[in-house]
Amino acid sequence: MKRLSLFLTVSLIAVTVFSQNAIRVGDDGKSWTIATRSTAYQLSIVNDEVRMVSYGNKRLMENAGRPLGAEIPVRGGFVNSTPLLEAVFPDGVRDIETVYQSYEIINADGYQTLKIIQCDKFYPWEVISFIKVLPEYDLIEKWVEIRNTGKKGGIKVENLLSGSIFLPKDAYELTHYQGVWGFEFTPYTTKLTPGVKTIQVKDFKSYGSSSFLVRPEGENDPYCGKVWFGSIKYSGNWRLDFDKSFNGTLQVVGGMNFWDQDLNLKPGSSFTTPSIVFGYTEKGTEGVTHCLTSYIREKLLPSSHRDKIRPVLYNSWYATTFNVNEEHQLALAKVAKEIGVEMFVIDDGWFKGRVNDKAGLGDWTVDTNKFPNGLQPMIEKINALGLDFGIWIEPEMVNPNSDLYRAHPDWVFHFPNRQRHEGRNQLILNLAREDVYQYLYQSFHKLLKENNIKFIKWDMNKQMTDPGFPSAPADEQRAVRIRYMENLYRLNETLRKEFPEVWFENCSSGGGRIDMAMNSRYDFNWASDNTDPVERIFIQDSYLTLFPANTMISWVTHEDWHRQHHPLEFKFDVCMAGVLGVGYDITKWTEAEKDVAKEKIARYKEIRKTVQTGTPYRLVSPHENNRSVLQFVNKEQSESIVFVYNLGEYPNNSFSENRRSALVQLRGLQPEAKYTFEGLEGTYSGDYLMKTGVEIPLRGAFKSRIFKIKVP
Ligand code: GLA
């Protein structure tokens, strides 16, 4: 016993020391081991080139063997991987030859970060690569900076991704998430055969995020097994290449998509890419979920609101669409308050000329036909009810039928002599222009200054088309998308700084722009306009694999895509697995419906801390079963909330003899602790609930139930 505790003490000390020194430099000063809690990433200098040696389980790294590939694969020399960097020098040479120069360990946001400088053998430029270590999340974050250190001549950058890793020889499968409006986050798993599998966005619409998982072929245990995974922190066009060599190694490389894009790096200037997050776990998909969601929840979300419990929302979109007015909004707010809502949000339709989706975008003043007294008097009445007030905006867009477009037809992206492609009757403002930025900043600064707004739903409904900026210098024309994204982030960050109390929701025709970069600036995501409860169960299962529950807003609405007339109780139970919202025309609700809502919202308030801040577990996936079971466990492991949704009469895991469902094993509890299980008699040890499991007392199709399991 004594020896065991001595061993434990020693190994604990070793772990602590290791995480404080997440980056270890080899004795030769030319190799590095970057360690997280359980992983290690190794690099070394071979013939003046920076090489990636290995990435995986920390305990198996002592003798990592030969390097797998270049840390920064470039276009130049032998091209046996996908280049991360492609550039043309002033004299037309387009072959890159970099050599290692120096390294430094710096601090980035409180985390040790390895900075490696490489220089060209001949041309005056530097390629600086960064690897930040997030030890407690088993993640590393990579990005690249390039500098033109010369005195004359621009360097044309034709491709610059954020980071690359190589995986050892094996057969692999890729899982990624794709979709369209209404069908966000559909998971796909595909074998990676020799060649390159690219997933990318070319029109700013990404209906499943850039998150990906790579596993050895055939391994699909949800709780164990190797997974390399990652996600790009960028909200514009992105690209990920999975380059499988014939000899078996796999390169994963990703970042900003340079399709139809280039960058002119003037003398003395530099450019820094967005970052790509990579991770490795041996705990299967569940390990991926825990690394990504806890990182986003604990470190990435905007710090002003990060630790706040999310309010219950009302949103008027499905109740009214564009037909909003003060009287009806106040009537909705009154019922919203009565049933327990805390934040009342008016969606589209409130601004000048916005009678339908053909007009108004760009004119961000209130429509006095609908709100003759302006917004603030109405907001005051809503506040007097005890509700906070929020509002919908779509800053990046303009309708041709608007005062803004009539005054500034050149403020949209366009090419001379070419059609301006409208989508939903709107065009994209050229946010690469400073005057457009200033107009938007002034408009929303004024809106927030003059009205007591506590919540912004920020939408973006059209795909990027016609990315022309005719009056820009020729060598900047193809960098417009980069400048657009810089100003989009700047607009959000400036408004957040000036109005620190305001919550921000990210929406893009449903979930068309969900990623880590948005989640470092916006508190919530609108995962989908598909609010049919059954459809939503699928979207939520995938979403919650990658993003934390306190970022996922879900509304209970009358949407019924398959005419199933699901009960209100079922709809509430679905939406309670994230941030609960209501979107019905609740002025039409009967007393009985209001009673259901009151009871459900009260219940949500009682469980939301564990749902919003707890560790998520996906016990049964609807993608593999006709049932979905989600579980959240609080930090202390003293309370757990289990959501069960039956999608068929007999869940697939039913016994054939009596059709009663098989036992469901919980996760994440304390083995020794005794728990009560709502709806069941007696107490159960955590060990029993996790190993033996319980038969969930819920039968029948499209039935749902929420259970609280707790230490009494
Ligand atoms: C988009 C959003 C919806 C709603 C409408 C308003 O479609 O995804 O949630 O806000 O715009 O026009």
Outline of the structure:
With 712 residues, the chain is an alpha+beta fold.
Give the tags:
22% helix; alpha+beta; 712 residues; disordered N terminus; 13 helices; binds alpha-D-galactopyranose
Describe the structure.
By secondary structure, the protein is an alpha+beta fold. The protein contains 13 helices and 38 strands. α7 runs parallel beside α8 and α11 (568-575) runs parallel beside α12. The chain starts with a helix and ends with a strand. The structure holds alpha-D-galactopyranose.
Largest sheet: 10 strands, antiparallel
Total strand segments:
38
Q: How far from one another are the termini? A: 32 Å
Mean pLDDT: 95
Shape: globular
Number of helices: 13
Stretches where pLDDT is under 50 for at least 5 consecutive residues are 1-19
Radius of gyration, CA atoms, in whole angstroms? 27 Å
Report helical residue fraction.
Answer: 10-25%
Described by its quaternary structure, the protein is single chain
Bound molecules: alpha-D-galactopyranose
Q: Which structural class do you get from the secondary structure elements?
A: alpha+beta
State which percent range the strand residues make up.
25-35%
